[in-house]
Amino acid sequence: QVQLAESGGGSAQPGESLRLSCAASGYPFRSYSMGWFRLVPGKEREGIAAIDSAGLTAYAKSVDGRFTISKDNPKNTLYLQMDSLKPEDTAMYYCARHRSSFSPTLSASGYDYWGQGTQVTVSS
């Protein structure tokens, strides 16, 4: 049974950093591409970072240069390092597993399993 569990969310001030983790289980973690998405009430879900099985990454323009996606295959864990946080980064953040191992994609349509989400709030 595939399970994804995010952690690490919380509150931060503008300019601060947070690191999100996503613990995966129930499948060969290293063989699948993974992604991070975020959702703000009233807005469409946004794909912000993705990583494929080879370690290639992709980022949304809104976070490029501030966020870093990475994974630790032996630990079956996906990470999202978020630096220089802005109030507009406030959202519920979700990790997701892609159906394949190929090219990182920010489109949600190719992802088949999702975590329960972790809230990130950035305010002064």
In terms of topology, how is this protein built?
Blueprint (H helix, E strand, L loop, with lengths): L2 E5 L2 E3 L5 E8 L8 E6 L6 E6 L5 E3 L7 E6 L4 E6 L8 E8 L12 E4 L3 E5 L2
Parallel strand pairs: 2-11
Antiparallel strand pairs: 1-3, 3-8, 4-5, 4-9, 5-6, 7-8, 9-10, 9-11
Explain briefly what this protein structure is.
This protein is mostly beta strands.
Structure in words:
The structure is a single chain. The chain has no helices and 11 strands. With 124 residues, the chain is mainly beta. Strands 2, 4, 5, 6, 9, 10 and 11 form a 7-stranded mixed sheet that branches. Strands 1-3-8-7 form a 4-stranded antiparallel sheet, with no helix packed on it. It is globular and about 40 Å long. The model has no long low-confidence stretch (mean pLDDT 96).
Low-confidence region ranges: none
Distance between the termini: 40 Å
Helix content: under 10%
Helices and strands, in N-to-C order? EEEEEEEEEEE
- Which secondary-structure class do the elements indicate? mainly beta
Range of strand content: over 45%
Average pLDDT, rounded to a whole number, is: 96
List keywords for this structure.
124 residues, mainly beta, four-stranded antiparallel sheet, globular
